[in-house]
Design goal:
about 230 residues; Vanadium-containing Chloroperoxidase, domain 2
Length: about 230
Amino acid sequence: MPFTFSDPSQFRTDGPNPLNSPEYTEDFIETRDYGRSNSTFRSPEQTDIAFFYSEHAYVFWNRNLIALVISRGLNIRETARFLAMVHTAAADAWIAGFNTKYFFRAWRPRTAIPRADTDGNPDTDPDPTWTPLLTVNHPEYPSAHGFLSTAVTDTVARYFGTNKVTWTLVSTVPQLINNQRTYCDVNTLMREIDDARVWAGLHWRHSMRDGDQIGRKVAKHVTDNFFRPVP
């Protein structure tokens, strides 16, 4: 059960693109080319970004939220309210997002690309040798990083009253060349996460956008209705 609303399906999105649609074909080609484990399209920098956001999301965000609290000099009361807002939004976005995942049960690129001859789309060619840079074990649509991370970043922006939040993020993934990335606004941060999951071969672009949509709506719901300042 969610913490701040009663129906886990309340923020459910419309679903994946039809497999025979031009939009699916466009996403298929992008993920096929950039998300392959040995892609010649993906640059070393893009590979590093894909790995940067491959750490366990809750571990990653909690570390970096604490660092943000310290850098902004929040006092104990402000810190408690800030972390309560962010983690409640994140938890409820997680619940709403996974409710959507298991409603649609969409296949991941690691299955869809090798078996493209079964999707009814003449513009998607199967590649039995295709494997992604990264892999996880739950349905593809919508992106979990999309709904969780957007819930976090939108709540951060709403707490501070601006998207222009300078934030240095640290990741501990061992493959990394650059383990720190600094952003001047949370929208740029989220666009890079969306790119990272496509470049990792985990998602179609549409799934990132719809995952972001869930996180954004949940963050608005939580911050509009809970943890409000009192006189």
